[in-house]
């Protein structure tokens, strides 16, 4: 799965580094100790030990469960009970919560020695079990086979022209698909380097890209901070201009931020679309048209279709439907949840719950989540993202989320939750702004001003929390 025999730096966390050869020795030694275990948990702090632990588990063929260090008591108790890890791996000196007291602990050290070859567990063997954040009910453990990880990493490498010469810069959490699978296993499979910043800051990004970074991964909240500063920060603008590839994922990148970064740097951010159960589905290619709001075309080996509410395939460009996916990138099952696994598929296609459209040339655009981002108002199906992008063009709007709420006349009325940029604009002014840019039926009927939008660890706005 990895190219682990070279003196090129594989992992860089601050001033701590491991070459590919050193990583192989450390991970191989640990893998011998894990061999034969049914499952291990990994306390996934942003540290070099987390990466060593994941590679060791993969070498040993032992499924690994990455744990969010900010996980709450109830969620942790559910994950431990559901996944039943035989060990929890953690960096030395890291304090673990009481919810892990029942699980034996093993510290991950950077000591390496000789080790023998490990048996290949097979393409369908579970590699990682990643727990979804869960909008309703307890989180589900998404079982990702080795086949899905390999196919996704090779597909994005082809689309992004990713090689061993690339140095990937990011500050993403290591318990999630974006930061761990793409952001760590991706460079390791290519034989390149991951430079993890520990904590995101525009200064750290500029320094790392100016040093030797060639690529950056981020989420929209990070790119928003970059967009806010890059026009006045020449060092940051120069660093981004020199990067080979800037990639955004985990949520839609607002068009306004996309354009501000492009204006200051000449660089257009590549957007892609994936989720825990499917890993990566589509992406704008490195040599493709990096148009704002588009998440590109299906990756090699991935099929994507749109279906209507009756499950019929939509072939017309511009039609809005649920995105369904099939291919080698798919997960195997939800751990201990055969009912949920069966419900997630329709004739072999995974039902993403995301709603999108397809342009004439095959580029996909994400409209939003079927449950939270499609508003049925006055007989119209309205995507929240379109209204959010329109509102972000108003100078009085810093951040915004759009939801629907019940309305006796319209079915649902459009509600805008606005973080103002300075003085609050009037609700009428914002409604007129949207009506002018889009159409009158898409204007917000209610505007609520808030100090901040609730977000999860990946920067996604938690709209259910807003409505609650």
Automatic annotation (TrEMBL):
<dbReference type="InterPro" id="IPR000873">
    <property type="entry name" value="AMP-dep_synth/lig_dom"/>
</dbReference>
<dbReference type="Pfam" id="PF13193">
    <property type="entry name" value="AMP-binding_C"/>
</dbReference>
<dbReference type="GO" id="GO:0006631">
    <property type="term" value="P:fatty acid metabolic process"/>
</dbReference>
<feature type="domain" description="AMP-dependent synthetase/ligase">
    <location>
        <begin position="5"/>
        <end position="335"/>
    </location>
</feature>
<protein>
    <submittedName>
        <fullName>Malonyl-CoA/methylmalonyl-CoA synthetase</fullName>
    </submittedName>
</protein>
<comment type="similarity">
    <text>Belongs to the ATP-dependent AMP-binding enzyme family.</text>
</comment>
<dbReference type="InterPro" id="IPR042099">
    <property type="entry name" value="ANL_N_sf"/>
</dbReference>
<feature type="domain" description="AMP-binding enzyme C-terminal">
    <location>
        <begin position="386"/>
        <end position="460"/>
    </location>
</feature>
<dbReference type="InterPro" id="IPR025110">
    <property type="entry name" value="AMP-bd_C"/>
</dbReference>
<dbReference type="InterPro" id="IPR045851">
    <property type="entry name" value="AMP-bd_C_sf"/>
</dbReference>
<dbReference type="InterPro" id="IPR020845">
    <property type="entry name" value="AMP-binding_CS"/>
</dbReference>
<dbReference type="GO" id="GO:0031956">
    <property type="term" value="F:medium-chain fatty acid-CoA ligase activity"/>
</dbReference>
<dbReference type="Pfam" id="PF00501">
    <property type="entry name" value="AMP-binding"/>
</dbReference>
